[in-house]
Design brief:
Elements lengths: L6 H44 L100 E3 L6 E3 L14 H12 L5 H10 L6 H28 L2 E12 L7 E12 L2 E8 L6 H6 L5 E4 L15 E4 L2 H10 L5 H23 L4 H26 L8 H11 L1 H4 L13 H17 L1 E2 L2 H19 L4 H11 L13 H7 L2
Parallel strand pairs: 3-6, 3-8, 6-7
Antiparallel strand pairs: 1-2, 3-4, 4-5
Length: about 500
């Protein structure tokens, strides 16, 4: 006999089953999130060990930017949107050039070497000559500058006359300006630590103690500090700067063999073209920004680091996001979630294509602003809609979920580059300057103390300012060290790289 039960009697069991089902669904979602995160971490580890990270995204068909990826899955459809596409014009391929050696620069000095033929018969007549040019190099030549100042006894016992000693960068040292410049440029531009340079000098029969060189460096940095202060002043007075930060290990004097983490903050202006490195002993907090930029008014282009959010609370300051950082997030999600990641990267690629057209056409800031309003802003609005819609369909902790939430979280900052034609689409200006610090850090590993780190900030600021102005750092530093002792303190701006370059013949 089949037992019949009332529906009301089954309600408690049904509720229990629904609760269990809900719990299982929640657990399943959590496990999916966890698995996605683990897969992402594994992928990043494989890339770090075996892969080569590229900042360039090339679609499978580089001449077609349609959104049909043939992946067996359709992208979320946003109603009342217009498909974004353009036809890329192929550049005509250049005809293959013959393998011809480039001419040797005319400004290089020529050393003439004449080779006459052997056993030349008498009566031979010269009818011409063949000239072959090859470049040679003489290793750095160290010489002693011997300054001789004759003394003269004046007639009628009126005393002694002797010429004034020329200004020397370090009066009580036997290091000249060119040697000091050579040591500093080699370390902070060519990334050769002082101990390696000591070894190189030793091979040439010159013994220099590393402690002596470190002492020279300290005194030279102190001598150049007024120029560093001038750069700092100009950065504060600029209305558009780029910002970034990086770490440096500093030996802990209170704990032999130990080290502490210090921070270099970098600020870069384009008008005038200057770079400022600021060292802090151990803080990466937003209050450092108030120390570096008191009274600053204008735009700060930066990445998504939270400390920069504090700047938005200061009247007269806006922060501009970096599309290169946002693009990097989607690039990391390509393997895990290719369809939405490809879509996002194609859209970002279109934004960069607009910027490239403006640069190649030498547009003025006003023309760039107009172009962005006409072409970039509609794309940005549509992309924001897609981000919001897609965020509801992906796992928050998955690579694509992290990329979407990162981008949408700073979206109001990302679109601000369209407000002014002088602003840039990314923060690569600052990151390029930080790269030299990163390369140097791999070689010398750490700074000896906080004072040395502060002096390192001075030197990096000046060397990076030379680089951005395409100034030879060896020539600049040699000239400045020879002049700065006697230079009018009210006219120090004349020695800054961008002004120094304009004053050269």
């Amino acid at each position: 006999m089949i037992e019949t039960r009332n529906i009301a009697d089954l309600s408690p069991e049904l509720e229990l089953l629904e609760k269990e089902n809900g719990t299982l669904r929640t657990s399943l979602l959590a496990e999916k999130n966890k698995n996605a995160d683990l897969r992402f971490q594994l992928d990043q580890l494989r890339r770090a060990i075996f892969g080569h990270k590229s900042e360039r995204f090339v679609p499978e068909n580089p001449d077609q930017l349609s959104l049909d990826f043939d992946m067996g899955e359709e992208l979320p459809v946003i109603p009342q949107t217009e498909e974004i596409s353009y036809t890329r014009l192929k550049k005509a391929k250049k005809a293959a050039q013959p393998n011809v050696r480039l001419a040797i620069p005319a400004h290089l000095p020529r050393v003439i070497e004449i080779i006459e033929p052997e056993n030349l018969p008498e009566g031979s007549k010269k009818i011409g000559e063949e000239i072959t040019e090859v470049m040679e190099i003489t290793p750095a030549r160290i010489y002693v500058r011997c300054i001789v100042r004759p003394k003269y006894a004046l007639p009628q016992e009126k005393g002694i006359s002797i010429a004034f000693l020329p200004s020397l960068p370090l009066p009580k040292s036997n290091a000249g300006a060119s040697l000091l410049a050579h040591l500093i440029v080699n370390k902070y531009v060519n990334h050769l630590p002082f101990y390696r340079q000591v070894q190189m000098f030793k091979r040439d029969g010159i013994d220099l103690a590393e402690s002596t060189i470190n002492n020279w460096f300290a005194k030279t940095a102190d001598l150049l500090e007024p120029l560093y202060e001038r750069i700092w002043k100009h950065i504060r007075e600029s209305d558009h700067i780029f910002a970034d930060e990086s770490t440096i290990q500093v030996l802990n004097v209170d704990k032999p063999g130990g080290s502490v983490k210090g921070y270099f903050w970098l600020f870069k202006s384009l008008d005038p073209r200057m770079v400022l490195f600021y060292y802090n002993k151990g803080s990466r907090g937003y209050h450092i920004l108030h120390e570096v930029l008191p009274g600053f008014q204008g735009a700060v282009q930066c990445d998504g680091y939270g400390a920069y959010n504090e700047l938005d609370n200061i009247k007269g300051i806006i922060t501009i996001g970096c599309w290169a950082h946002a693009r990097r997030k989607f690039e990391q999600a390509l393997e895990n979630d290719p369809v939405p990641a490809r879509y996002a990267m194609l859209i970002i690629q279109e934004l960069y294509a607009i910027e490239r057209r403006a640069t190649e056409s030498n547009f003025t800031p006003d023309q760039i602003k107009e172009l962005r309003e006409k072409e970039s802003f509609p794309i940005l609005k549509e992309f924001e809609t897609w981000l919001l819609a897609t965020a509801q369909t992906v796992l928050p902790k998955s690579p694509i979920g992290k990329a979407i939430h990162y981008t949408y979280g700073i979206y109001r900052k990302l679109i601000r580059y369209t407000f002014d034609g002088r602003y840039r689409i990314d923060n690569n200006q600052a990151e390029n300057s930080v790269r030299d610090l990163a390369l140097g850090r791999k070689n010398y590993l750490f700074c000896g103390n906080h004072q040395a780190a502060g002096r390192t900030a001075i030197i990096y600021s000046l060397m990076a300012s030379c680089k951005i102005n395409e100034v030879n750092p060896q020539e600049w530093l040699t000239d400045v060290l020879n002049r700065i002792q006697d230079h009018n303190s009210q006219k120090l701006d004349e020695l800054l790289p961008h002004n120094w370059k304009m004053s050269r013949p």
